[in-house]
Each structure stands twice: as C-alpha cells, then as structure tokens.
Specification:
Order of helices and strands: HH
Helix content: 55-70%
Shape: elongated
Strand content: under 5%
Amino acid sequence: MKKKKFNELIQKPLRFHHQDIHQELEEIKGMLKNVSDQMQELREGIRGAPNSTEELPVPEFYEHPWYKYKREQLIASGNYQQPEGEETPAA
C-alpha cells in the first residue's frame, strides 16, 4: 500500500512537469517560427535591393560632438595632422 501511494505522489508532479515541458516546447517552437519568418523577410529584402533601380542611400558622415570639438582645437593650435586620404568634413 505504501508503495502504491508513493508512486501516485510521484506520478502527479511528473505529469504536471511533463505537460509544462510540452507547453514550453510549443512556446519555443512559436518563437523559432517567428524568428524564421523574420529571417526570411530580411533575406528577401537583401536580395531585392541590388536588383532594384533605385539608389541605396549612403549614410552621411557622423562625427561625435566631442571629437569634432577636439579636432577643431587641434586645428586651431596647429597640431592637427590630417590622415592621408581623408578630407576634413565641412562644419
């Protein structure tokens, strides 16, 4: 009798955890499907860009205000040596 009662006590939590694991697995499958769909959209977007006739926008040069300030200070002091092949961006 004791063994039967013990087995029943073990089986209930195991069934609960088993169902819980299946629910989590289904959630993970859903998230994976979502990521897969997003990857497919990105793939299609990337593949479509080179074949289109429109030009892709070129990002403008960005210089953090601190670096711009420091560069201007160096230029004003005469200690600025411009790297080869680079133009000083317009202020």
